[in-house]
Every structure is written in structure tokens, then in C-alpha cells.
Specification:
heterodimer, A: MetI-like fold, Rossmann fold, 8-stranded mixed beta sheet, 4-stranded antiparallel beta sheet, B: mainly alpha, 15 helices, flat
Chain lengths: 649, 341
């Protein structure tokens, strides 16, 4: 922790500043205590010179000497006030834990109200009663700042009070003050230390302000605040006598403030590592992306885009790579994905979490942001996105592509009503007027089976149920009349009963508008029902693509088969073990050589361990592609690839 | 007993419709919210009036002697004590104090014999103008700088700018308003001679104090705004907005800003009440007539009636500001209403 503190530049700097101030507080009064009082009327309001570094004030006294001497009083008062605040605050805070719930409620409310009051007003009230001077300022500032401590101590003590080790201590018979002293206090000491150093900062500022106002330190004693008050009237003739104490106050505030912040960071290792890790993420050069990507593997463009589909292609994706920089170097999250989607077709992309399916969908919509890098060719309705200007891109993607995200409760803006959110895209990109767009919104919501649509437009997302929100999300896409709708796990965040409704809404959209859909899901059963075709992703690549109807008859890739076997069936015997795939999907930064699935594959051969299988169109069935040596070799050798699911799992 | 039972059905029509109205009122989150706020306001107001009353009674010795010194004749002391009601029993003093306070009467200044109400009325305008302009500077500057910094450093871009921003704002935020005032006076009044160092008058007298009061708040709010903006930009709904390919300004102003404002007000709302305290000091730095400088003069000269009046007004404005922030939060984000119930 100490090392963490010293390692941060602000920690080191603030430590030096605080030490300098402490040195001045200790030694300056001994060295200059008397000469600083000496009024030399022959040297009134002198400018700074080599002889006297900061010049003299209106009474011919050395500004530098007085500034340094004043450090002791300024710091002493601030520290004493902070101690008063600490003691008062902890007493108040801990007593909230001990007292009854009604009294605690009242005390907490009083504490909250007092925190909201500017401390300087509270201190002024105290000085009215106690009279001006150092004593009342110290008491006043201590009182004013005690409420912050009280709140902190109360929160901490309550959270600590419920912990297991406190209960354990109680059971053993530790009670009362000993429990507080030995068990509660040590656990709340760290945040209190941080708060204390920040309170010292606040005290310096407030006490100086009060001395400046003439309510604090009284002449012939002097602190920085009083020096400022004395110097300000002569700022035209002797500017330094006002500037120097002002800057000294700022210096002290900065020193103690940074010290407190650095302390807080050092105490909280989470904050610490997060900051340093982010700083070390380096920019990835464009060149690296291509080196890291497997783009050299696939050459022929038409082959790469995949299976010939019936109808005009809406979307062609070719060698899509998404790279993300990590401290260990750039990692490809999507490693060269290619597929084609025809008009009105529904493609399911299935895979475990981390397989890159969501990233593929986001990359199609050009959504990954810096520092992620996307490369590869995406063609939407014949427009190759890479070649378009950003203005054309906005128009095309803003109207022709709709995205439905996983969690409707977080994907709709909580501060904007449903109506404007629904119609934003058409108002922006199609310049639809507000009246027309409102009508369209109502008819879209009606189509989404949302009751009382015109009333919903005026509501906020949080006033709608989860299923309603997801329908709004789909409607928000549909209102643009897009050619392609990408739905990323649209039902995962919803209740099972609502899931079916959302899926049927998507089916309707596809049927009545002919919208092509990419449905991302980890749920094979769901995908097989709603999709025309299914692509299975594993470790950033498509490993198999086939018509959804053929899923039941037997996919070729061992991973797809294992996935299928892992789908629990209704009426599955309760005592029988649920099938699962042994092992885990590899970390994308450390994909094994050869086939990424080979460590988990019961059919893996030596070749699978060294040579990565290509995603090849089946010569026996051009509607299917599979990336598996075993499956593809069987065909080339004229054998039918047969392996029962039981064998695989 | 029996008759009352028979009567009941006949009158049941009105209570039902009334119940309907009450129910709608009860269901509206604003009713409960404003009701609680109002109760809170009233209790603080009562506390402030009591504070003003006991503040003077707590002064050790005789407040009149403390204020005027023991040199003035005893008859004069008695006269002022009678005027303040100090010669009556405490309970009676309290009721008459509260009674006149309700009518806005806080007595007369010890020094000028002016009614305290008049003094406050004359000073409240300049103070409001100062606090209002500082608030405007804070909101515009803080939100603009914070959001620009967030846009510039989003996703770990420009890490050096991020460090510079952090350093500069924590420095500017740590320097108190009266030090800013001194620096501004030195730069713009003493060195450049472009703006007056003190006094009151046209807008040229307002600029320096408003910036002195506003600058540290700009820095603090900008820091909060930057963090909150980054937070909002990382939210799913921002991704949704980006998927719509709307123009950048629209993304920031229409989608991010309301959420940033809500979050900023929640964490930074207390900063605004600090304006009141800051104004007290800044008015003295710039020798600006206002409630703050009047309060300081009154406290120094132990002019208790004026102190009582101004403390009440300033305290009330702190509570009003905090209430206003809460109401604003309720408008910006209706979810907070439900949460606070």
C-alpha cells in the first residue's frame, strides 16, 4: 500500500508538498518568529528582489518570513479543527448504530441536512455565539465538518456491524467498547484516514476564509487568511503581499488534497490497478490487425462468402476480423467470418458466450468502437461499406439495418419517451415530419401487439414491462422498414413466457415485411424453430453452416453435434445426467493450434492438432459448410461420416 | 347506532368520487415527493428561526453590552433591551420573536436603525445576480468542458489529455474562490487594468466575482460530468443510439446529456448550495454590496438583528436550492421519485 502510494506521481508530489509545509510549520517560527514581526518603515511595500524574495508588505515586514511563520498557526488550527470534527463525528456516527431506529432516523436526517449547509455559514453562526477568534473558529469548523465524519462513520459502522466476524466476536462474548475498539474501528480506519486528510484540506480553506473575513485569527497573531486580508487593500502597491498568502493557501490545499486522493487510491487497490491497466493498453497499428488475422487463408472471394443462397443477397460478409488490444497484445475476437444472407432469409448464429457471435453482429453494423478494429468486407444491398463516405454510411445503416439488443431494459434510453425514441431514425434519416412519424409509430406499435399504442408513446421505458420494451425495440427497428434486422439474443433477458411472444413477433416481421433477420442466440432449439439457416460459431470462427431443417438429421461438426445433444429434452429422466460438453472454450488470446475444438473433441486426430480445418462447402450438399478434417475427409474418401451423438458426448 | 348504518348507503356516492380523486393524487409520485419536501422545508425553516432566536440568547453575558460596549448609559442599554424584548421571560420572547418573524419583521439594525427587512431587500438583488451568474458559468462551463473531455478521452483515447484534464481540474477545484478572486484581481485589475478590482455598478463589476465564485465549481462539475458522460457512453442505450447512426451532436445532446445531467445533479447537487457560502467570502474580496458582505459586517460589529435576518435568508436559500435540485432530478428522471419513496 505504501508502495502504491509512492508509485503514483501525485502521491509522491503531495507527500513532498506536505513535508515542506510541515518543515515550515516546525522551523519557520523558530528562525523568523521575531524578525517577521519587525516593521521597517523605510522599506514599505517593496517589490520582490534578491535581498527579500517576496518583498515587503504595507508595514515594511518581510512577506516571505511572515508567510512561513504563519504556516504553523494555519496548519495547527486546521489539524485541531479536523481532530475535533473526527472525534465529534465518530461519536455521532457510532451512536447512530447503538440507538433505537426512530432516534437514528432523526439523527441521520439532521446529519444529512447539516452536510447540505455550507460549512462557512455554520462557523459564522458559531462565531456569533462564541465571539470571533481562533477558539470559536476551531470549534466552529470542527462542528461543521463533524457531520461528514458522522455520516461516514455511521455508514461504515453499520456495514461492518453486520459482518460475520463481528457476529463471531459477539458470540465469543466480546462486548461494548472493546468490540468497537478492537473489531469495528480497525475496519473503518482506512476510509476515516482518507476523510481526515481531506478534512484538513477543508479546514485550511475554511479557517483561512474566516480569518480573511476578520472572524478568525486576530492580530497580532496572523495566519495566511489574515495576511490575505491585510494584503488585499494594498494589492495595487504591493501585489505580492496579497498574492503570496493566496497562493500559499492554494498550495496547502493542493498538497493536502492530493495527499488525501493519493491515500484513497493507495487504500483501494481496485482503483489502482484499473487505472494502470487502462493506461498500458496500446494502440494497435492497422498492420498488426492483418498480421494477426487469418486473412491470407482464404483467397477466392465468391467461395469465401459462403453457400449460394436462393434470391438476391442482402448481406455479404467476407473475412470479417475484429481485433481488440489487450495488455498481452492484440487479440482477434472474430477471426475471419464469411457468410451470405438472401432477401427475407433468417440466419441463426449460434455459439457459447465468448464464441464471437455478438461481436460478429456488431461488426456487421459497424458498431465496435476504438480500441477495437474491424477489417473485412461487408456488403449491404450491394453497397460495400468500406468504400462509402461516412455520410452515405449513416444513411444506409441508419435506415436499412436495424439492431435489436439483448437487454431491452438497458438498451432504451431511460430519459427519453418511447415516441421520440421510436421515430428518431426516420426523423433523422428520412426527414419524416413529426405528425407522420407519430402515425407511423402508432401503427408500428399496433403491429407489435402493444395495447393503447398512442398512450405508450408518451411513457418512459421504465413504465413498460420487459416484453413491451423488447417489442418497442423491434418496432424501433421495423419502423425504418429495414432490409436487415439483427437481433442479438433478443429473448435472453426476458421471462420464458414472454420469449415465445417476442419470437412470434420476429417471425411476423419476417413474413409480412420480408425483412431478412440475423438471429444471434446460444439457444439451439430456439434457432432451429425460427431460422432458415444456422451458422455455428466456435472460438471466433464459423465451424458449420447448414439449413435449419437439417439440424435434426445430423450436423457434421462434432461441436454442433455436442451442442445438440446438450439440449435437454422435455421428459428427460430426472435421474439421468444432463449432457454437457467436457472442457471449456479456449481463451481467444490463446486459441490452440490446429482446430480450436480439438482439445474437447473425441474424434480429434493428429492433423486436427496441427492444421486448422477450412470451412468448406460440402461437395455432396452445397447448402452446407463445415470446418472439420474428420467430416470433410470422410466425404473425400467416399465414406459417409457417421458418429453417433452418444459417442461424442 | 342503527340509524347511522341506514344513513351510510345514501351518502356513499360522494365519498366514493372523493376517494377516486384522493387515490389518483395518492398514486401520483409527485404528491408524496413534494409533500415530504414541503415538510422538510418547514422543519428547516422552524429550526432556522429558533436558531436565530437562541443564537443571540446564547451570547455569553448581555448581547447589548457585547454589541455596544459598557460605556453607553445604562438607560440606553435598558431601552435597547426592551426593544429586543430581552427583559421579558424567554417563552414570551420566543412567541413575540416568532410572531414578528412571520410578518417579516426582524427588528432594526443596531448601527443604522434601518429595519432589517429593508437591509435584506436592498442587498438580496446583487447577491442573487452574483450567485446566478456563477451558477450559469458553472453549468455551462462545467458541462461543456466535462462532455468535451469525455468525448475526447472516450475508450481510453488520448490518455495524456486525460491525465492533463485530471491534474488541471483537481488543481482548479482545490483552489478556493477567494484565492481565485485574488488571482483574478491581480491579473485583470492590477496587471491588465481591464476590469475593476472592487465595488459595484455595471456588468464589468460582476465578471471577476462571478468567475472567482464559478471557477472552482466549473472544475469540480467538469470532473463529475466527464466521469458521468463516460459512464453514459458505455451504456447499452448509447450503443442503441449509435446503431441508429444519428449525428454525433444528437447523440451527445439528446441521448447523453439528460442522463449526464441526472447523474451529475445526484452526485454534484450539494456543490450548488456551496454557492451561498462562497458568495459570503467573494463579496468581501471584491467589496461588493450583498447579503454576504452585510452578514460579515454585522457579525463583526455584533449587529444581532441583521445577523438573525440574513442567516435566516441564507439558510433558507440553501434549503431551497437543494429542494430545487431534487425537483429538477424528479423532472429529469421520474424514476428518482419512486426510489425516494
Amino acid at each position: 500500500m505504501v508502495r502504491a502510494f509512492l508509485k503514483s506521481p501525485s502521491g509522491l508530489l503531495s507527500l513532498a508538498m506536505v513535508l515542506l509545509l510541515l518543515a515550515a510549520a516546525i522551523f519557520a517560527p523558530i528562525a523568523f518568529g521575531e524578525s517577521a514581526q519587525f516593521q521597517d518603515f523605510s522599506r514599505v511595500a517593496e517589490q520582490p528582489s534578491a535581498g527579500s524574495l517576496l518583498g515587503t508588505d504595507g508595514l515594511g515586514r518581510s512577506v516571505l518570513e511572515r508567510l512561513l511563520v504563519a504556516t504553523r498557526l494555519s496548519l495547527t488550527l486546521a489539524v485541531v479543527a479536523a481532530v475535533v470534527a473526527l472525534v465529534l463525528g465518530i461519536t455521532m456516527g457510532i451512536s447512530t448504530v447503538v440507538m433505537g431506529s426512530r432516534a437514528r432516523g432523526i439523527l441521520l436526517r439532521v446529519i444529512d441536512t447539516m452536510i447540505a449547509f455550507p460549512s462557512i455559514l455554520i462557523v459564522i453562526v458559531i462565531t456569533v455565539v462564541l465571539g470571533k477568534g481562533t477558539l470559536s473558529v476551531v470549534i466552529g469548523v470542527g462542528f461543521a465538518f463533524s457531520f461528514g465524519f458522522a455520516r461516514l462513520a455511521s455508514t461504515l459502522a453499520m456495514s461492518v456491524g453486520g459482518r460475520e466476524y463481528i457476529n463471531a466476536a459477539r458470540v465469543v462474548g466480546v462486548q461494548g467498547p472493546r468490540l468497537l475498539w478492537r473489531y469495528v474501528l480497525p475496519n473503518i480506519a482506512e476510509p476515516l484516514t482518507v476523510a481526515f486528510s481531506l478534512t484538513v484540506t477543508g479546514s485550511i480553506l475554511t479557517i483561512s476564509a474566516l480569518s480573511f473575513l476578520g472572524l478568525g485569527v486576530q492580530a497580532p497573531q496572523y495566519d495566511w487568511g489574515l495576511m490575505l486580508a491585510e494584503g488585499l487593500p494594498t494589492i495595487y502597491s504591493a501585489p505580492v503581499s496579497a498574492l503570496a498568502p493566496a497562493l500559499m493557501i492554494a498550495f496547502a490545499a493542493l498538497g493536502f488534497g492530493l495527499f488525501g486522493e493519493a491515500l484513497a487510491r493507495a487504500f483501494n487497490p481496485l482503483l489502482w490497478t484499473a487505472g494502470s491497466k487502462r493506461a498500458s493498453v496500446k494502440r494497435v497499428a492497422r498492420r498488426d490487425v492483418h498480421e494477426a488475422g487469418p486473412s491470407t487463408q482464404i483467397d477466392s472471394a465468391s467461395d469465401a462468402t459462403g453457400i449460394a443462397t436462393k434470391g438476391k443477397p442482402v448481406l455479404e460478409v467476407e473475412d470479417l476480423v475484429v481485433t481488440y488490444p489487450t495488455p498481452a497484445g492484440p487479440v482477434d475476437i472474430v477471426k475471419g467470418v464469411s457468410f451470405t444472407l438472401a432477401e427475407g432469409e433468417v440466419l441463426g448464429i449460434v455459439g457459447e458466450s465468448g464464441s464471437g457471435k455478438t461481436m460478429t453482429a456488431l461488426a456487421v453494423a459497424q458498431l465496435p468502437q476504438f480500441p477495437a478494429q474491424v477489417s473485412g468486407r461487408v456488403t449491404l444491398r450491394g453497397n460495400e461499406l468500406r468504400t462509402m463516405s461516412s455520410k452515405q454510411l449513416d444513411k444506409l445503416l441508419g435506415t436499412d439495418l436495424a439492431f435489436v439488443f439483448q437487454d431491452p431494459s438497458s438498451s432504451l434510453n431511460p430519459a427519453i419517451r418511447i415516441g421520440p425514441q421510436l421515430t428518431e431514425a426516420i426523423r433523422t434519416h428520412k426527414k419524416v415530419g413529426s405528425k407522420k412519424s407519430n402515425e407511423m409509430a402508432v401503427s408500428t406499435l399496433t403491429e407489435m401487439h402493444i395495447p393503447a399504442p398512442s398512450r405508450q408513446l408518451k411513457r418512459f421505458p421504465h413504465e413498460l414491462s420487459g416484453g413491451m420494451r423488447q417489442r418497442v425495440m423491434i418496432g424501433k427497428g421495423l419502423i425504418k422498414e429495414p432490409t436487415l434486422l439483427v437481433a442479438d439474443e433478443p429473448t435472453t433477458a426476458l421471462d420464458v413466457t414472454v420469449q415465445a411472444q417476442i419470437m412470434s413477433v420476429l417471425d411476423e416481421v419476417n413474413e409480412s415485411h420480408g425483412t431478412a433477420i440475423i438471429l444471434i442466440s446460444h439457444n439451439l432449439a430456439l434457432v432451429s424453430q425460427s431460422c432458415d439457416r444456422v451458422a455455428v460459431m466456435y472460438a471466433g470462427r464459423i465451424v458449420e453452416e447448414l439449413p435449419a431443417g437439417q439440424l435434426g438429421e445430423g450436423p457434421l461438426h462434432p461441436y454442433t453435434r455436442a451442442l445438440l445433444a446438450a439440449v435437454p429434452e422435455f421428459g428427460h429422466p430426472r435421474d439421468a445426467k444432463l449432457a454437457s460438453i467436457p472442457g471449456e472454450m479456449p481463451d481467444l488470446s490463446a486459441t490452440p493450434p490446429g482446430c480450436a475444438y480439438h482439445p474437447r473433441c473425441p474424434l480429434a486426430t493428429d492433423r486436427c492438432r496441427t492444421e486448422r480445418p477450412e470451412l468448406l462447402i460440402r461437395p455432396d450438399d452445397v447448402t452446407r459448410r463445415v470446418a472439420c478434417h474428420v467430416a470433410n475427409d470422410d466425404v473425400s474418401e467416399g465414406l459417409t461420416y457417421q458418429a453417433s451423438s452418444a459417442e461424442l458426448v | 347506532m342503527a340509524t347511522s348504518i341506514e344513513v351510510a348507503p345514501r351518502t356513499s356516492v360522494t365519498p366514493q368520487s372523493r376517494r377516486g380523486l384522493l387515490e389518483t393524487l395518492w398514486k401520483n409520485p409527485w404528491v408524496g415527493f413534494l409533500g415530504r419536501r414541503f415538510v422538510g422545508l418547514i422543519s428547516v425553516l422552524v429550526a432556522l428561526v429558533l436558531l436565530g432566536f437562541f443564537m443571540v440568547r446564547l451570547v455569553p453575558g448581555d448581547p447589548v453590552v457585547a454589541a455596544f460596549g459598557s460605556e453607553i448609559p445604562a438607560s440606553e442599554i435598558e431601552r435597547i433591551r426592551g426593544e429586543l424584548g430581552l427583559d421579558k421571560p424567554v417563552v414570551e420572547q420566543l412567541t413575540s420573536y416568532v410572531g414578528s418573524a412571520i410578518h417579516g419583521d426582524f427588528g432594526r439594525s443596531f448601527t443604522t436603525n434601518e429595519p432589517v427587512g429593508d437591509i435584506i431587500a436592498a442587498r438580496i438583488g446583487p447577491s442573487l445576480i452574483l450567485a446566478g451568474s456563477a451558477l450559469a458559468i458553472t453549468l455551462v462551463g462545467g458541462i461543456l468542458i466535462g462532455m468535451l473531455a469525455a468525448a475526447w478521452t472516450n475508450n481510453g483515447r488520448h490518455p495524456r489529455s486525460e491525465v492533463a484534464f485530471g491534474g488541471l481540474t483537481s488543481m482548479a477545484g482545490a483552489i478556493p474562490d477567494y484565492v481565485w478572486g485574488t488571482i483574478l484581481i491581480f491579473v485583470f485589475a492590477v496587471s491588465l487594468g481591464t476590469l475593476p478590482a472592487s465595488g459595484s455598478g455595471g456588468i464589468e463589476y460582476l465578471i471577476l466575482p462571478a468567475f472567482a465564485l464559478g471557477l472552482p465549481m466549473v472544475a469540480n462539475i467538469a470532473r463529475i460530468v466527464r466521469v458521468e458522460t463516460l459512464n453514459v457512453l458505455a451504456q447499452d442505450y448509447t450503443r442503441t443510439a449509435r446503431s441508429e447512426r444519428i449525428p454525433g451532436w444528437r447523440l451527445y445532446l439528446r441521448h447523453a446529456l439528460p442522463n449526464v445531467l441526472t447523474a451529475t445533479l445526484t452526485t454534484g447537487g450539494l456543490i450548488f448550495a456551496g454557492l451561498i457560502g462562497g458568495a459570503v467570502v467573494v463579496e468581501t474580496v471584491f467589496a461588493r454590496p450583498g447579503l454576504g458582505s452585510a452578514l460579515v459586517t454585522a457579525v463583526t460589529s455584533m449587529n444581532y438583528p441583521v445577523v438573525q435576518g440574513i442567516i435566516l435568508v441564507l439558510g433558507l436559500s440553501v434549503v431551497l436550492i437543494n429542494t430545487f435540485v431534487d425537483v429538477l432530478l424528479g423532472i429529469l428522471d421520474p424514476r428518482t421519485l419512486a426510489k425516494r419513496q
